[in-house]
Amino acid sequence: MKVGIIGDAKRAVAWERHLRPHQIVQEVELCPSIKELGDVDACFLVDETDNNLDLLLEGVHQGLNCFLIALQPTDTDKLETIYRASMEAGVHVQFSHWPTLAPATQWMMNRMPRPSYLSISRNVQYTQFMNTVNEFRHYWIDELGLCMKWLDSGIHHIEAKQVLLNDTHPSVFHLFIRFDNGSTADINLYTGASVNKHIRIAANRQEIFECDAPEQNIRIGRLNSGEHLYFEKQSFDPAKAAEKSALMFLKSVQMNRETAYTPYDAYQLSLQVKQVEKRLSQYH
Length: 284
Prior knowledge:
The chain has helices at residues 9-19, 52-61, 76-89, 98-101, 103-111, 133-151, 241-255, 263-282, and strands at residues 2-7, 27-31, 42-46, 66-69, 93-95, 117-125, 155-165, 169-179, 184-193, 197-203, 208-212, 217-223, 229-235. The chain is of the alpha/beta class and 284 residues long. The longest helix is centred in the C-terminal third of the chain and has 20 residues, at 263-282. The mean pLDDT is 95.
């Protein structure tokens, strides 16, 4: 496959390194503009600007299979347009929704397709928190996207609450979701922690998963023949997340199958973000 990378030169070179180990990649073309891109099988858009969805739509209209590498966008109108355009053009689009693309998550989603319970807790060290509402917003948006993707059911009910110290400094956030299939999920964020901690717990009637998200370590709990709970461990290399996400995208293109995080996923997430923000504004 011939692959194009559009974006900042330094980041583009870093992504080229992620692509080099894969045998299906024969050639990589680094290009500052999508208009200058030659004939490629897939395109990586490394773009954190406010116009990245416009660039993605341009790529889709050119018939390019695209992987957008950026913070998860939430512009509902543009995402709906991209979703419909990609379907019409028959191209594959993947978003860099890292909670979903992470190797540990992919392993858990394959092993436990629809947990009946999902609980996410993220404590951010106060000395590392940049104290921006936008940064805080993306924390919970990322986790909400994972809950929706993993539990894969319509949402029956959402409750949301956040507290801003002096109405400026985001400190805590809580989200509770009940899905149509009876599953539940909750997300808890805290930005005044003494140490960073990011844990995801998933459970069904057979197993419990406890995942340390930054370290990509999983404890798998189940009952033994004596009905006692015991744990096994699975570990993944966090440094390989980008490389593995690139391979997932290229395999989707090669095999003509759905990407790991699709325009439809991104569009549905944006709709629920609106609902959560509506809830938060009601109880400000």
